[in-house]
Structure formats: C-alpha cells, structure tokens
Design goal:
- By secondary structure, the chain is an alpha+beta fold.
- It has helices spanning 14-25, 50-58, 62-68, 106-120, 161-165, 230-241, 247-254, 297-314, 320-349, 356-368; strands at residues 6-10, 29-34, 45-49, 70-72, 74-78, 84-89, 101-105, 123-126, 130-133, 138-141, 146-148, 151-154, 173-184, 194-196, 203-210, 213-221, 261-270, 276-277, 280-282, 288-289.
- An eight-stranded mixed sheet has the order 6-5-14-15-16-13-17-20. It has a six-stranded mixed sheet with strand order 8-2-1-12-19-18. A three-stranded antiparallel sheet has the order 3-7-4.
- The longest helix is centred in the last third of the chain and has 30 residues, at 320-349.
- The radius of gyration is 20 Å and the shape is globular.
C-alpha cells in the first residue's frame, strides 16, 4: 500500500502533473489545484532534453509528445552573419532510443499531461489555490473551503505560495540577464537548436517546436522593459534580431505578432535541504529554479516528481526514511544543474571564455544516469 492515500498537488505545471499522474494511477486520491484558469492557454516553447523525455515516457505520454513535438540529435553553433561554425551530436541523456532533445509548444505539453492526469483519475480544479497550509497537511483554499491530506505537494512554480506559506525564506534572485522569446512558424531552415554566443546579444538561438512552429530567443542584460507597449516589445526584439542572419533572416520575417513576444529575467534559487516541512514538500521551480542556459529546468522538475512518487509508492508509511532518500537523490543533483546553468550565464556576463564544452559534458554525464 502506498505511503499516502490522499494527496493535494498545488500547481498544474510539469512537476505538479507529473507527480499527480503516477499517484492517481496507483489508487491514491489526488486533488490538483491550479491558480490559472487554463494551464494550456499561454506560453511559448520548451526544449526537453533526453532525461526529460525519459520521464515523460514513464508517465505514458511519450507517443503524444513525439507526435506534437520536434525531435533532433545535434546542435549547431553559428556566427552572427549566419555562418555555421560547428555542429556536433548532442548527448542522448535519455538513452539511445530517445532523441537527444525535443522542442515543443508549452501549451501542447500541458494539454497532453492534463489529459493523462484526467485519465488516471486526478481531480483537477482550475482558478483555485491555497491560502493557508500547515505541516500536518491541513489547507485552506482560496474559495474559503478547507481540507486535510496525507501529503501536500507544492509544485506552484518560482513564485510558490506554498513555499511562502511554509515560511521558507529562499527566493529567486535575478542573475543579470533578460530574455526575449517569440513563438511563430518554423521556416524550413530550422531543423534543430542552433545558438550564437556573439553579437549584440549574449545568446541568440532558436528551437523547432513542431512541424510548423518554433520559438526563438535573444538574451541581453536584464533591464526594465515593463514600459514597452506590445508593439514596442515586438520592435525591440526585431531590432535585436536584425544583427543575426542565416536562419534568423527567415525567422525575423515571421516576427509580426506582438502577442507572441515576451520578456522575462533569468532567475535562480535552490531551497536548502530538506525540501519538506512535515507533510508538505516542494518540487520543481518551487524548490529550485535555473536560467535556461542548459535547458534543464523542465527535466529537473520531472525528475523531482518521478523520484518523489517512486518513493511514496514503494513505502508503507511517510516517514523520515522516505524524506532522507528523496533529499539524497534530488538535492545535490538539482543544485549541480542550477549551479552549472548559472555559471554558463556568468561566463557570458563576465565575457570570460570558460570551459563551456567541459561544463556541458559534465552535466550531460550527470543527468544521463537516472535520477
């Protein structure tokens, strides 16, 4: 019998859905609350490395993900003028039978996971969250109702309300970089992730997210862009993109819709071990966040959920042995990925060459081993 019979998952993103699905599939009564009215209504694209695909396969959604996404096995490096400087095989961290990486639309991924959750028996409530949480599993919801669960999973993102309600002081800090993202049609010249590390932006890159879609991004010094109108944001991204050529010329021609452009800052944090307080545990971005320089944020959220649910389903009681095992398997690994992601960005900020290939190889070797 699982260590828990009733579970509340707060947050319907990657970590939350991935925790809910296997628990419900093994007979645990799972309620999932999500503050947004529709988790699949917004977002641009996401790059999923092989270790993320490995976890999605365990959740039973790999075929749907493969159908909706765009897989590839190599990485390209370009100069601002579009010259292809290098191309090399990307590490297949999920194993030889999965792509090295796959890009897809975030809304499509959210929709696939929530359909799987519903099929597993998860009870999902949108437009609802928690306003109080105690360490014994008692909660008060935003509609005034209350409940008590064997376990509360705080998977409510980088601005986690559960983390705040628990009194955990660790909070994200900006790293000094800001990123422009745009989601649009995929020109035939884009068949994998390609990156440029020079020119007016620290990083100019793109990733195919489907047969007919991609997301493109430009990384600059973090600055207050809140005063820009939607048309101003579009104009700014187009201006930055004008320094890049090759496939960027094709991409820039499609940058016409202000609604498909957004700007955010890179942030980072790692909650010190342990990530639980009594019968409440933090996972995913609630527990750790990293800039997307290594494209491991989604993978680490999925790994958190996989390890947590594996331990809960294998144990008879929710005791310190479960929490010790969870900490041992997740804290150092996630922290290493976060540190490496921040380090790569810091080398760019400091304009230091750094050992980027060595750093990427070290993290690839780490995450190739199952969590």
């Amino acid at each position: 019998m699982p260590a828990v019979r009733t579970v509340l998952v707060v947050g319907g993103g990657l970590a939350g859905a991935a925790a809910a699905i296997p628990l419900a599939g093994h007979g645990v009564a799972v309620d999932l609350v999500e503050l947004k009215p529709d988790i699949a209504s917004a977002g641009s694209g996401i790059t999923l490395q092989g270790n993320a695909l490995r976890e999605l396969r365990k959740l039973g959604v790999w075929e749907a993900v493969r159908e909706r996404g765009y897989g590839f096995d190599s990485l390209g490096l370009r100069a601002p003028d579009g010259t292809l400087l290098a191309e090399f095989p990307d590490a297949r961290t999920g194993g030889p039978d999965l792509p090295a990486a796959l890009g897809m639309s975030r809304p499509d991924l959210a929709r696939i996971l929530h359909e799987r959750a519903a099929a597993a028996g998860v009870k999902v409530c949108f437009g609802r969250t928690v306003t109080a949480v105690d360490q014994d599993g008692g909660v008060t919801f935003s509609d005034g109702s209350t409940g008590r669960y064997d376990l509360v999973v705080g998977a409510d993102g980088v601005r986690s309300a559960v983390r705040r309600l628990l009194g955990v002081e660790a909070a994200p800090r900006p790293t000094g970089m800001g990123i422009w993202r745009a989601f649009g049609p995929r020109p035939s010249s884009v068949t994998r992730t390609e990156i440029c590390y020079s020119g007016p932006s620290y990083i100019a890159g793109f990733c195919p997210t489907g047969e007919n879609s991609l997301y493109a991004y430009l990384v600059e010094d973090a600055q207050d862009r809140s005063g820009l109108s939607p048309s101003g944001r579009l104009a700014t991204m187009r201006e930055l993109a004008s320094a890049y050529h090759g496939p960027w010329d094709d991409i820039r021609a499609t940058l016409t819709d202000p609604a498909r452009v957004n700007y955010t800052w890179f942030e980072t944090h790692v909650v010190p071990a342990p990530w639980h307080r009594g019968r409440v545990v933090l996972v995913g971005d609630a527990a750790h966040s990293c800039p997307p320089t290594l494209a491991q944020g989604g993978a680490q959220a999925l790994e958190d959920a996989a390890v947590l649910t594996e331990l809960l389903l294998a144990a008879d009681t929710l005791d310190e042995d479960v929490w010790a095992a969870f900490t041992a398997r997740r804290h150092a690994r996630a922290a290493a990925v976060v540190d490496a992601s921040v380090q790569l960005g810091q080398w760019l900020l400091d304009r230091e060459p750094g050992d980027v290939p060595g750093l990427m190889a070290r993290i690839a070797a780490l995450v190739t081993q199952p969590a």
